[in-house]
Design goal:
The chain has helices at 2-43, 46-72, 87-115, 122-144, 151-180, 185-212, 222-230, 266-281; strands at residues 235-247, 250-259, 285-292, 295-297, 304-306. With 307 residues, the protein is an alpha+beta fold. The chain has 2 domains: 2-212, Alpha-lytic protease prodomain-like (Up-down Bundle); 222-306, Alpha-Beta Plaits (2-Layer Sandwich). It is elongated, with a radius of gyration of 26 Å.
Length: 307
């Protein structure tokens, strides 16, 4: 009992530290966004303003991540019997949708600047992008430990890694403009930043959507699960099988299992199946309804009647 209490106290303290790190990252990113946007206006760099817009989105994303973490930490209750774990998935969905909109806007702005080029101040671009790079790396360091096991925080972490990469690109572009007069580099870098944002966001959006739509986890095959369950002694058929993810770390299953009524030991078979699902497929939450040959299940309702 004392060990559990100490562990719970440690987790609570870690959560408080994590939340403070997220709030600190929000404040830093908002300050950086203002600085970069002003520098972008002064220097005329669309890439710098694009990075500022991206950082503003990151600050909003971190706010969403913070709120989602607070909601997700609540336990199960009468209204939400699975708890509030999926609050972080909703936060990730909002973040990624916003990122896609930012990426599309940057593509539009880049095309506009290609046809309407503006004078650029390379030194300002280099100074602002260097400051941005330092802040991005510091923020990413704050979020790195929190990103494991949470799509929500992982989305915020990847945002900052993207920012760091784009800051490096903008810094290189500022150097090319200052010393080589390569003014075409600015829209080219903006287009690369936009392309990476869209590629990254769409990939994570697919993962988040699959979980929200209760899709089968990618590491599990429904056919293999049925085959493994049928291999248990006493099991005859398996139907009404459903496999889904509660969140990115927890899988669930429900199924109807028909056993040999004369020779099957129902409690022993049930225990064997649940242990199999846990050990082989990492499914810890399994709800299984046991049936016998004398029972017939309605395909619509799943209710069984004895004949």
């Amino acid at each position: 009992m004392s060990h559990d209490h100490a562990h719970a106290h440690h987790d609570h303290g870690a959560a408080d530290v994590s939340d403070r790190a997220l709030l600190g990252a929000v404040i830093v990113n908002l300050g950086l966004s203002v600085f970069e946007f002003i520098a972008g206006l002064v220097s005329g760099s669309v890439a710098l303003m694009a990075d500022a817009l991206h950082n503003t989105n990151d600050a909003a994303a971190l706010v969403i991540a913070y709120v989602a973490r607070r909601i997700a930490s609540k336990g199960a209750d009468e209204r939400f019997t699975f708890g509030y774990r999926r609050a972080e998935l909703i936060g990730a969905m909002i973040q990624l949708t916003a990122l896609i909109l930012v990426g599309l806007y940057l593509v539009y702005e880049t095309v506009h600047r290609v046809f309407d080029p503006q004078p650029l101040l390379g030194v300002w671009i280099m100074i602002a992008s260097t400051v941005a790079l330092i802040v991005d790396l510091a923020t990413a360091w704050f979020l790195w430990a929190l990103s494991k096991g949470s799509l929500n925080v992982k989305a915020a972490f990847l945002h900052n890694l993207t920012d760091a990469a784009s800051s490096v690109a903008v810094l290189a572009g500022g150097a090319a403009i200052t010393w080589l007069d390569w003014y075409w580099v600015d829209p080219a870098i903006t287009l690369m930043i936009a392309g990476y944002i869209l590629w990254m966001s769409v990939g994570m959006l697919k993962t988040t959507s699959r979980i929200i739509m209760q899709g089968v986890p990618p590491h599990i095959s429904a056919g293999e699960v049925i085959t493994a369950m049928l291999a248990v002694s006493g099991v005859q058929t398996v139907h009404h099988l459903h496999i889904w993810e509660l969140d990115e770390a927890h899988c669930a299953l429900e199924a109807h299992v028909v056993i040999d009524g004369e020779h099957g030991d129902c409690p022993a078979i049930l225990k064997t199946i649940k242990q199999l699902l846990h050990d082989r497929f990492e499914i810890a939450h399994a709800t299984i309804e046991m049936e016998t040959e004398a029972e017939q299940c309605d395909p619509e309702t799943g209710i069984c009647s004895t004949h």
